[in-house]
Amino acid sequence: FAVKEHEEHGSVLDLVMDDARSLNRDLGVTDRGKLDEYMESIRTVERQIERVTKRQAEIDQLNIAPPTKPWQAMSRDEFIQVMGDLMILAFRTDLTRVCSIMSSPERWGSPLTVHGLFDKPVDHHGMTHGQGNEHVRSKLEALDHFHVQQFATLVAKMAEVKEGEGTLLDNSMFLLGSGISDGSLHVYTDLPTVIAGHGGGAIAANRHIKSAQGTPIANLWLTMAQIMGVELSSIGDSTGILKMG
Questions:
Q1: How confident is the model at residue 10, as a pLDDT?
Q2: I need a labelling partner for 140 at 20 to 30 A (CA). Which of 77, 83, 133, 186 fits?
Q3: Where are the extended beta strands (E) located within the chain?
C-alpha cells in the first residue's frame, strides 16, 4: 500500500496537479473526461488507503497485539476491492499487462475477517479440511459465493472502463480459480475456473467448457499465454491448447 510514503507526501494527485491542469487545457472534451475519470479513480484508492491507515492508528491506541500481518486488519471484501482497483489502475496506465491477486492464503491457515458472513475471523484453509461435515460445508459454500461476488464486482468495474471501441474487460482475460478442488483430500482435478473478458476478441463468452478427463490446467495457461502473443509451445505439463474462440 505504501502507507508510509502516503503519509509523508499526501495525495499522489497533489504532486502532479499543476501538470494535470496544464495538460487538461490542451485536451479535447473526450480526453478531458478520460483524465478526470482516471484522477477520480486514483482519489478513490487513496481514500480507501486513508481509511485503513486511520483504522490501524485506532487499533494501535488500544494497546493490543497487532495482527501477524497488516492485511489481516482489513475485511476480505475491502482487501480484494482495494487490490482490484490498483490492478485496474495499473492496466489503464499500461504499467503492467499481467497481474495476480491472492484473495486469501491457500497453503496455510490464517484467520481472516469476512464482512457480513461471520461474527469473528475464520480460517478458510482450515475449514476446507472439514468439508465432509455438513455444517462446515455450508460455511464454505457461503465463502465461495462471497468470492464470486467480489470477482463479479471487479468484472463490472473493468466493463465500465472504455478502451477504443470496447472496454478494458473486452481486451482482458480475467480469471477466477483455485489450485485445489477438494481441500480435505488435496485433489487438484476438476478445478472450477471462470474467465471473464474476450481477450481482445480471442475468447467467445457465455459458454461452459468441460474438458476431457485428465486435461492439465497448464493447457489453459498455455492457451492464455499464446492469446497474449507469447511464443510458447508448452508450459509445465501441458499437452496442448484449448479451443476458446
A1: 59
A2: 83
A3: 162-163, 166-167, 174-176, 194-196
User: So where are the chain's domains?
Assistant: 3-164
Closest CA to 218 of 173, 179, 185: 179
For the chain, the distance separating the N- and C-terminal CA atoms, rounded to the nearest angstrom, is: 37
Place of cell 501538470: 19
Residues 60-99 as b or e (16 or more Cβ within 10 Å = b): eeeeeeebeeebeebebbbbbbbbbbbbbbebbeeeeeee
pLDDT in tens, 80-110: 999 999 999 899 988 899 999 998 877 777 7
What is the rounded distance in angstroms from the CA atom of residue 149 to the CA atom of residue 103?
12
Alpha-carbon distance of 119 to 194, in angstroms, equals 29
Cβ atoms 12, 47 nearer than 8 A: no
Nearest-5° Cα angle at 220, 214 to 223: 130
Of residues 198, 178, 196, the one with CA closest to residue 187: 178
- Asked if 111 and 72 count as a contact pair (C-beta separation under 8 A), the reply is yes
Q: Which three cell numbers stand for residue 98?
A: 499481467
Residue 217 CA: distances (Å) to CA of 149, 173, 206? 24, 16, 20
What's the pTM value of the predicted model, to 2 decimals? 0.74
- The grid coordinates listed for 102 are 491472492
Q: Which residues pair with 162 in a beta bridge?
A: 167
Number of H helices, E strands in the chain: 7, 4
Closest CA to 196 of 115, 53, 84: 84
Burial class, 222, CB count within 10 angstroms (exposed 0-12 / middle 13-18 / buried 19+): buried
